[in-house]
Design goal:
Layout: E1 4-13, E2 16-26, E3 31-35, H1 42-50, E4 57-62, E5 65-66, E6 77-80, H2 92-97, H3 107-120, H4 136-148, E7 154-158, H5 166-183, E8 186-191, H6 194-200, E9 203-208, E10 211-216, H7 218-223, H8 228-233, E11 240-247, E12 250-253, E13 256-261, E14 266-272, E15 277-293, E16 297-304, E17 307-314, E18 325-330, E19 334-337, E20 348-350
Bound molecules: adenosine-5'-diphosphate and magnesium ion.
């Protein structure tokens, strides 16, 4: 188990900056997720922690020891790659044993550890098979066993579930989470899937363009996003973003003028979660363009003078139909500076007005 720290760690390839100078501290036994869109630098960060990439700048510390120059095999880090990267010509047992090859673990002990790792992820019956004879889910478990056999002080998971079908993904999410709790190993999960990040990790590190945008719990990122980027990335369907102009305790949104609490002036973006849109009554007007029934809820697309607004309503039977013109109101809101994209923390629509 380990405490992990990045101090101004950056990675560049020529003109490409994959990771800007980044500070980050991860506690012993913590489970964090690095969440962000494709290309934002998640895997690069993970590969620097694994010792596969050497940082261009800064220091990586495991329990206060700088490990920048320590090779991958000497770092005691277990990693699961998106592709699993199992050796096709080796059996499952040989794959799981492989990381112990470079360690002076006696043969009997190595076999016992491989057996134990296989038991942890329930692949004991598959030990004599080759990876080609396994399903995607089974290969994923073997890759996990191979990462755990060293009893690593840090477990790194790079999009481990993205090649699995939806129902298996859900099972594996809770299995990995339970395994991590049981072992107490410091774990970093890289994913572009917000559900994976928020359901599995204690804290989520939200990244964009090589930079950390925000670190927080699922609740922080959803209810108190620091930026429009985070607000837009977390939540499905995504938050509505209405361009407006603020001043003198008001915000003008198209044809409507609403009260505004807090100090904002100039161009703002008002963020409204689809479930905070109240259909049927209120100061704004729209027309239903599309209705998506989802069983226990319905998602409406409204065309409004401000653009398309999405609304989510609980209930099995949609209350409105395509073509209905209606008024709507807003139950809660977030307000962002349009220029910087930062959230104006003390601002919200004044819904009493
Ligand atoms: N070995 C490399 N050489 C050059 N550029 C790279 C290399 N690896 C990654 N990059 C670039 O760095 C950026 C971040 O990549 P990556 O960390 O793989 O993103 P993510 O895992 O978030 O999808 C991308 O622009 C990618 O093209
Ligand atoms: Mg990646």
């Amino acid at each position: 188990m380990s405490r992990i720290e990045l101090r101004k760690v950056a990675k560049r390839w020529g003109d490409v900056t994959a990771v800007e100078p980044t500070d980050l501290a991860i506690g012993d036994g913590e489970f964090v997720a690095i969440l962000g869109p494709s290309g934002c630098g998640k895997s690069t960060t993970l590969f620097m922690l694994a010792g596969i990439y050497v940082p261009s700048e800064g220091e990586i510390r495991f329990d206060d020891a700088v490990v920048n120059e320590v090779e991958a095999r000497d770092r005691n880090v277990g990693i699961v790659f998106q592709s699993y990267a199992l050796y096709p010509h080796m059996t499952v047992r040989e794959n799981i044993l492989f990381p112990l090859r470079f360690k002076s673990v006696p043969r009997d002990q190595a076999r016992a550890r491989a057996q134990a790792a296989a038991a942890l992820v329930r692949v004991e019956e598959l030990l004599e098979r080759k990876p080609g004879q396994l399903s995607g889910g089974q290969q994923q478990r073997v890759a996990l066993a191979r990462a755990l056999v060293k009893e690593p002080q840090l477990l790194l998971l790079d999009e481990p579930l993205s090649n699995l079908d939806a129902s298996l993904r859900m099972t594996m999410r809770s299995e990995i989470r339970a395994l991590q709790r049981k072992l107490g190993v410091t774990t970093i999960l890289v994913t572009h899937d917000q559900i994976e990040a928020t359901t599995m990790a204690d804290r989520v590190i939200c990244m964009s363009k090589g930079r950390i945008e925000q670190i927080g719990t699922a609740d922080d990122l959803y209810h108190r996003p620091d930026s429009l980027f985070v607000a837009g990335f977390i939540g499905s369907p995504p938050i509505n973003q209405l361009a407006g102009r603020a001043g003198e305790g008001k915000v003008v949104l198209g044809e409507a003028t609403l009260g505004l609490r807090g100090a904002a002036a100039g161009a703002v973006v008002v963020g409204i979660r689809p479930e905070a849109v109240r259909l049927g009554d209120g100061p704004l007007r729209g027309r239903i363009d599309d209705v998506e029934p989802h069983g226990r809820e319905a998602i409406y697309h409204l065309s409004t003078p401000l653009g398309v607004v999405r609304a989510l309503e609980a209930g099995a039977t949609p209350r409105f139909r395509v073509g209905d013109a209606l008024a709507f109101g807003i139950e809660s809101s977030l307000v962002f500076d349009a220029g910087s994209g930062r959230r104006l923390g003390d601002c919200a629509l004044d819904l009493r007005a």
